[in-house]
Structure formats: C-alpha cells, structure tokens
C-alpha cells in the first residue's frame, strides 16, 4: 500500500481540491454502478491510495479522503467543519488563548443550501431512512429537483467551495482558522498572513490533524500539497511544510502553488504593486525551499489562453477556473495509484505506475537539479488518429503555468506525461498498447523532444460529475470527442451534455520556466534588496532582515544558473 496524504491550504486551493475530490467520488460511484460504462469498472486504480476506510460510532462504514483542508473561518458555507458523516455535534471550542481582554461574539446567519446541496442531502437522508426503516418503495416524500435546475443554481450562485462538493469528509479534515474572519481581499500578502497567524496554535492543530492521517498509513508515498500562494496563506503553508520536514524527513512533498485569475489583476497603486511583487518573490522562495518539487499553476487569463481552445471559461468565476486545474491534477495523480506491474507485464487498463518520489526523481534528479516543473494539459485530448499524430497530441498540450517561455529547445528537458481515455475514430477507445505506441511515435516525429519522458496511460477517461461547471465549448461531444461542426444555439456545455472526456497532463522540467524565476529574482533585488529599494521597509515589517532576503536571492540565482549557466540574472548586482 502506497498512501498519499493531501493538504489544501487557502481559498482557491480548496476550490481546486473540491473539484478534484468530486472526480474521485464520481469514479467510486461509477465503479459500483451496474449500468455504468464498463471502462469505469476496470480502472486498475487503487483508490485506497487517496482514501481511508473508517466507521462511525453507530457502526456505519465510511470511505473518506485522506485530507486536511485549511481555510478562513466562515469559508465552509453551509457545511459543518465536522462534515456530515459523524453526528457528534459541533466541534469543541478551541484551546487557543491569544486575547485576555473583553470578548464579543459575532454570529452569522447560516448559509442557505443551494438546489444541488438540497437535493444531495435530501437523497442521503432518504437513503438513511430507507436503510433504517427497511423501506423499499412508496411515494417519494421529497419535491423532485431536476438536474438542469441544480446545474443552473451552481452556474449562477457558487460562493464557497463547499457549494458544489458532493464528497463526505472526515471530522479531522476540515479546519477553519479560529478568529480569522478576514476579508479575503485584504488577506493578500505574506506579511498580513504572518501577522495574523503569529501567537496562535493553528500550526500545531493542523499538524495534529495531519498526524492523524499519516500515522494510520502503512507506507506513505508522499504528500500532495495544494496551496493558494497568492496571499496570506503562504506563511501558514510554510509552517506546515516545516513541520512535515521535521516529522517526516524522507517523505517527498509534491507542491502545487495555485492561483485564480483574480490574483493577477494589476494593482491600483505603486505601493500595492511593490507589495505584490515582493510577495510573489518571498512566497515562492520560502515554499520552494521546503518541498521536493513545486509546480506553479494559474494563468492570468485562462479563458484567453490556448489551454481553453475547446473550453468556455469565465475568468471571474473561481468555480470555472479551478475545474480545469483540478482536471489536470487528477490526470497527474493517476500514476500514483496505478497497480505496479512486473517489468514484462502489461495491463489492459493502465500502464506506467510511479510513486511520488519516482516522479520527483525523474523531473528533478536528472543531470541538473531543477525542482520547478511546468504543468501542461490538453482538455480534452483530440482523437489520436491520422498522419499528423504528433501535432494532434503535443500541439494541444498547453501550459497552465504562468510566465514561461514558448518554443524553447531544451536538450536536457525531462517530462512525465499521463494520457487517459484516449479516443480513436468516433468515440472508440484505444487499447493501452496502441496509445503507448502512438505517443512514442508522436515524440519521435516531434521537432524537439525531451531527453527523457515517463509515460502513464489509462483507459479510464475523466468522468464529469453533475456539479462540474458548464465550461466545455460547443464542439465537445458527449464523450469528449471533438465534433466536426459546432452545436447550434449552445455556447457552452456542462455535465448534462458531456459525460466524460479524454485527458492528457504533463509535468516537464525545462528552461522554459526561466522567465518565471527571473521575474521573482528581479523583484526581490529591485524592490527589497537594492540600496534605497522601495519595499525594503515593507519586507522588514514582514519580519525579514536584509540578509534573509539576500539568502533568498542566492537560492533563486542558483535555480536560474541550474537551468542556464550563462544567465545574466544569476550574477549578483544591486
């Protein structure tokens, strides 16, 4: 058994995570559904890698994500921090003592469940009553809510990541930061986060919850860490990462630093611009120093990128953007839960199993020690047919990592790619061996090719759960096939129209990430380190002395030199 423990820290990270767990829940349901497509019944995926089995005090068996989710107080919407499985009342009051003065209580009105959640919990209560009372038929006491109404309520009304979550969580999973009823718009830089969290015991409480999940693992293979690093959650993530480094020294951390498009809006003032630039530099420097591999995720405008060629995304909705990023993270996670086979064996359903540590070593442990990876995705993957296969597959893999160079020839680049649910003519799925041959052929005929590429292939496509947003364009068919002509009178399509899609996602270690690194080093030097730097006082108020900033700059400089020894940015200068 090779368990993964997942952490989600921050608002947008939890939006991404909510979609991610919806995919897993959908896979679990389809595997048990006698009427589901057979491709979902033989996944060759061990879901125990991500999930834990348990039992309530009433003896009900549970199957919940091995997850710790952290967000601001009040961020759970209508969901209790205890989840819904374990009826143990509200969580105990925190033992944190940070204030000795008068205390006032602020109680907010309970967040009303949308139509989707009303239907979801209504079904669960009905199933529970049916099980307890032995009821097998009769009239349905609920008012029926049609699927189209549920979908429309989500499209127009998602405020919290719990609004579209269909997953049952363990009571140890959901953690709200006590006393931090902070406006997310103001919780926007490293200093504010560090100040808000100082003096509290939140870090220790989060570590205890993490310990709960880790200690029941037989053989943990790694941590899948998703952090919204656009604001004040970065220092909290750093604290958690430091705790992981102390307690689980040899367990690798795969860190996704995710951002919604809102974090890229140009600041109104020079002061805000300096703060934003310094936050980006400090946050990346601190986070990257505490993981084995870091993957920046989040484009300034996903809707206008080539990654959205077949999508119809509203950048202003975190519900939309996070869905696309979650789909890519799902694809990347498949090798971690494939059943490992012998050197000559080949499964009919999946191939290319790898642990987190193996993927980390592939990408960061080769000739050069680069630990910043680029994420590319094709959503959906066009049918793998015809003589232009290399263009069909590789051309549609587009970056979800910001600030990277395009059309770079890097002879030392290495990649790990996951392809699943690939379609042939029409909606016919290819067998594993054929997909492997076609992908290898695509790389053989490509103009530029990596020094090494690890390939994972699965027959199982990405299932589209009901609460998935309507982000598919009008050329995407029911099974993710690309239609020759657009569907008239339909600008976007959702879960009622598209039931599954073929996906591909790739992590690559390449010098194309140099602009991302150079921008952060340049900001650190210009706004924080240089004589008379406009942000010197600001970062000092964040708790960083000049020598600490210089150490960060030296680490960033080494990252750049690793990828380009001739880079002028790697030289020290004021």
From TrEMBL:
Q: Provide the protein's localization.
A: Cytoplasm, Cytoskeleton; Mitochondrion
Q: Which residues form the DML1/Misato tubulin domain?
A: 156-337
Q: Which CDD domains match?
A: misato
**Does the UniProt entry include the keyword Cytoplasm?**
yes
Q: Return the InterPro entries for the record.
A: Beta-tubulin_BS, DML1/Misato, DML1/Misato_tubulin, Misato_II_tubulin-like, Tubulin/FtsZ_GTPase_sf
Which keywords are on file for this protein? Cytoplasm, Cytoskeleton, Mitochondrion
Checking Pfam families in the record gives: Misat_Tub_SegII, Tubulin_3
Q: Which residues form the Misato Segment II tubulin-like domain?
A: 2-120
Does this UniProt record's set of keywords contain Mitochondrion? yes
Name the protein family: Belongs to the misato family.
Q: What is this protein called?
A: Protein misato homolog 1
The species this protein was found in? Prunus mume (Japanese apricot)
């Amino acid at each position: 058994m090779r368990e993964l423990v997942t952490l989600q820290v921050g608002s947008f990270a939890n939006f991404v995570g909510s979609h991610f767990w919806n995919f897993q829940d959908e896979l679990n349901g389809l595997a048990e559904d006698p009427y589901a497509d057979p491709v979902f019944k033989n996944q060759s995926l061990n879901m125990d890698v991500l999930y834990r089995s348990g039992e309530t005090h009433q003896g009900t068996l549970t199957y919940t994500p091995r997850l710790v989710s952290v967000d601001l107080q009040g961020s759970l919407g209508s969901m209790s921090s205890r989840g819904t499985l374990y009826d143990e009342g509200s969580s105990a009051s925190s033992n944190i003592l940070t204030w000795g003065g008068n205390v006032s209580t602020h109680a907010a009105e309970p967040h009303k469940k949308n139509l989707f959640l009303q239907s979801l919990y209504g079904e669960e209560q009905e199933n529970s009553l049916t099980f307890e009372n032995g009821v097998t038929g009769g009239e349905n006491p609920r008012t029926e809510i049609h699927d189209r109404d549920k979908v429309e309520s989500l499209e127009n009304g998602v405020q919290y990541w719990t609004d579209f979550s269909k997953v049952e969580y363990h009571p140890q999973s959901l953690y709200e930061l006590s006393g931090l009823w902070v406006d997310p718009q103001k919780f926007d830089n490293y200093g504010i986060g560090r100040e808000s969290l100082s003096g509290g015991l939140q870090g220790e409480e989060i570590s205890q919850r993490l310990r709960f999940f880790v200690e029941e693992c037989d053989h943990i293979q790694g941590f899948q860490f998703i952090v919204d690093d656009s604001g004040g959650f970065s220092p909290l993530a750093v604290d958690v990462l430091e705790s992981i480094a102390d307690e689980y020294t040899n367990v690798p951390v795969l860190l996704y630093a995710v951002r919604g498009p809102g974090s890229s809006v140009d600041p109104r003032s020079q002061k805000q611009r300096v703060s934003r630039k310094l936050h980006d530099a400090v946050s990346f420097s601190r986070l990257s120093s505490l993981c084995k591999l870091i993957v920046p995720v989040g484009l300034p405008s996903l809707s206008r990128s080539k990654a959205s060629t077949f999508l119809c995304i509203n950048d202003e909705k975190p519900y939309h953007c996070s869905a696309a990023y979650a789909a890519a993270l799902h694809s990347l996670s498949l090798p971690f839960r494939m059943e490992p086979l012998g050197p000559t064996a080949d499964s009919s359903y999946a191939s290319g199993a790898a642990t987190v540590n193996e993927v980390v070593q592939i990408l960061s442990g080769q000739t050069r020690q680069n630990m910043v990876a680029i994420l590319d995705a094709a959503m959906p993957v066009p049918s793998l047919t015809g003589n232009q296969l290399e263009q069909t597959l590789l051309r549609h893999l587009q970056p979800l990592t910001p600030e990277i160079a395009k059309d770079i020839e890097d002879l030392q680049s290495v990649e790990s790619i996951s392809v699943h649910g690939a379609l042939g003519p029409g909606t016919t799925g290819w067998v594993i061996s054929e997909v492997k041959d076609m992908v290898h052929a695509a790389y053989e005929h490509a103009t530029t090719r990596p020094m090494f590429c690890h390939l994972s292939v699965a027959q199982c496509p990405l299932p589209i759960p009901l609460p998935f947003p309507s982000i598919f364009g009008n050329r995407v068919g029911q099974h993710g096939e690309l239609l020759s002509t657009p569907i008239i009178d339909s600008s976007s399509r959702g879960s009622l129209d598209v039931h599954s899609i073929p996906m591909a996602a790739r992590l690559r270690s390449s010098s194309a990430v140099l602009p991302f690194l150079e921008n952060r080093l340049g900001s650190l030097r210009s706004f924080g380190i240089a004589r008379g730097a406009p942000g010197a006082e600001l970062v000092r108020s964040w708790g960083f002395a000049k020598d600490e900033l210089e150490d960060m700059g030296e680490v960033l400089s080494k990252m750049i030199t690793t990828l380009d020894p001739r880079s002028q940015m790697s030289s020290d200068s004021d």
